[in-house]
Write a structure and sequence with these properties.
Blueprint (H helix, E strand, L loop, with lengths): L4 H7 L3 H6 L18 H10 L1 E5 L5 E6 L3 H8 L12 E4 L12 E7 L2 E6 L1 H13 L5 E5 L15 E7 L3 H9 L11 E6 L2 E10 L2 E9 L3 H12 L4 E4 L1 H4 L3 H4 L16 H6 L5 H4 L2 E2 L32 H5 L8 E7 L1 H8 L23 E2 L1 E4 L5 E11 L4 E8 L8 E6 L17 E8 L5 H6 L10
Parallel strand pairs: 1-11, 12-14
Antiparallel strand pairs: 1-7, 2-5, 2-6, 3-4, 4-5, 7-10, 8-9, 9-10, 13-17, 13-19, 15-16, 15-18, 16-17, 18-19
Length: about 475
């Protein structure tokens, strides 16, 4: 029996085939109910009134503190740490030795020599490995995401984590605080009171309006949630279920789950030997029409994901040598693809198609059927010119959208094809039934797609692309 990821890969005929046939099942945002009202209403609330996102359960909290904490982060992140004061946060992006992205998450500077990384497992695992093996003088704590299927077992986290977003968010926040609250700068932290409890905050924003991320001891989760919903009732706040939550990125432009670039390089062998045989990286389900026998064809560099501006060569970090050789101007760029209505309607008939095999089901509002999704983007001649990486429908834009990375010379406004469905009838994933493929027409569009996000969001990965 395999004892670690490396042994899993050694026993597999091919890494790509192993991940494409993963038996993981549907990717689950745990514990939070799928819907409170309905996913369309919940999507509309973050654009028109206000929404309460419960982010307590689906992300890892990885705590790192001590004299070498900042050095650990600097050594593993493409970001500059020349200026990272207490009570600020940044989007942290680590890369492997080959320059491929491991993942990303939000890094909070809580106090002197005290940080927490909040994000999916790959980034937290990477940090934990280097903390344990790199000779750093740090203390760490891994607060894992809640189980996908708790089956009635008790669920325990260290913190609750909420976001209040939307055009009515700030009046709700000030009502909760009982007085006017200073609008600190974007990605700066503050504090407030809710229901007599001390709450830490991070200035965030959606729908072109200021909002806050809030956190505190998990024991206060119900008390704080009830207070927010009570205060927000007159402002039209809606609690958002896990079904709609995952689709908000279609409007804001963040690509959540690139395949960690750790499966092949010899420099990462010790990491693969450290990772468990049953962890995220071993059971990660790779999905979509793009199929290559070479796992490295799935790796994405920071420019392809819209993180090129984060790459700072003012410090040494893992992957720097590889990234210094990259011609940034020639890299693929992040875009939104606006799907053709008629082609999407054709896909949506699959559940009631009684005449044939049908297509891979396009679920609503999030159509992804793997942990990491890669669909081929084709030009008029059938050449692959990019990858579609996250797909769904938004009631605010009333259309199907996907987030993609395409060749640098593909202009905004170009018509392309997204190949939906896997070749040869589909892989052995439990989320796949035998199906045919469909080449869906799509228009290359800006990212973020939502006009308010494009014109009013803070700069960085959410800045307009043209």
């Amino acid at each position: 029996m395999a004892r670690n990821l490396q042994e899993v890969l050694d026993s597999a005929k091919n890494t790509v085939a192993h991940l494409r046939d993963s038996q993981l099942g549907t990717y689950i945002y745990p514990v939070v109910p799928a819907e409170f009202t309905n996913w369309r209403r919940e999507q509309i609330s973050w654009r028109e009134t206000a929404v309460l996102f419960d982010q307590t359960h689906h992300m890892v909290n990885f705590f790192v503190s001590g004299p070498d904490a900042l050095k650990l982060l600097s050594d593993t992140g493409i970001n500059s740490f020349a200026n990272f004061p207490v009570d600020t946060a940044k989007q942290f992006v680590p890369t492997a030795s080959n320059g491929g992205v491991i993942g990303d998450g939000i890094l909070f500077h809580l106090a002197e020599d005290d940080y927490v990384y909040v994000g999916r497992n790959p980034g937290a695992n990477w940090l934990q490995f280097h903390a344990e093996t790199g000779g750093y003088n740090v203390e760490t704590r891994y607060d894992d995401r809640s189980p996908s299927r708790p089956y009635g077992a008790a669920v325990r986290r260290e913190y609750y984590r909420f976001q209040i977003q939307g055009p009515n968010a700030w009046p709700i926040i000030e009502k909760l605080n009982g007085e006017e609250l200073e609008k600190v700068r974007f990605f700066h932290m503050g504090e407030m009171a809710i229901a007599g409890e001390h709450v830490r905050t991070l200035r965030h924003g959606m729908a072109g309006a200021p909002g806050l991320e809030l956190w505190g001891p998990y024991e206060q989760h119900g008390k704080i949630r009830d207070a927010i919903l009570e205060a927000g009732a007159e402002f039209g706040i809606e609690p958002c279920g896990s079904r709609a939550y995952s689709s908000n990125t279609l409007e804001s432009g963040w690509i959540p789950s690139p395949l960690p670039a750790i499966y092949s390089s010899e420099a990462e062998r010790s990491y693969r030997e450290w990772l468990p045989a049953t962890g995220y990286e071993a059971v990660n389900a790779l999905a979509g029409s793009f199929v290559s026998e070479n796992i490295e064809d799935y790796y994405l560099n920071p420019w392809e994901l819209g993180y090129g501006s984060f790459v700072k060569f003012d410090h040494e970090f893992i992957g720097r040598d590889a990234l210094e050789k990259v011609d940034a101007a020639s890299q693929r760029k992040k875009v939104t693809l606006a799907w053709n209505d008629d082609d999407l309607a054709q896909l949506l008939t699959t559940p009631i198609d009684r005449s044939g095999t049908g297509y891979q089901v396009f679920d609503l509002p999030n159509a992804n059927y793997g942990s990491s999704n890669y669909d081929s983007v084709l030009d008029a001649d059938g050449n692959t010119i990019g990858l579609s990486l996250f797909t769904g429908v938004t009631a605010n834009e009333k259309r199907g959208l996907s987030l993609a990375t395409v060749d640098a010379d593909v202009p905004i406004g170009a018509e392309v094809r997204v190949m939906w469905g896997e070749p040869d009838g589909g892989s052995q994933k439990t989320t796949v039934q035998p199906h045919e493929q469909l080449a869906v027409r799509a228009i290359v569009s800006p990212v973020p797609y939502a006009v308010t996000a494009r014109t009013e969001y803070h700069g960085g990965w959410r800045t307009a692309t043209s």
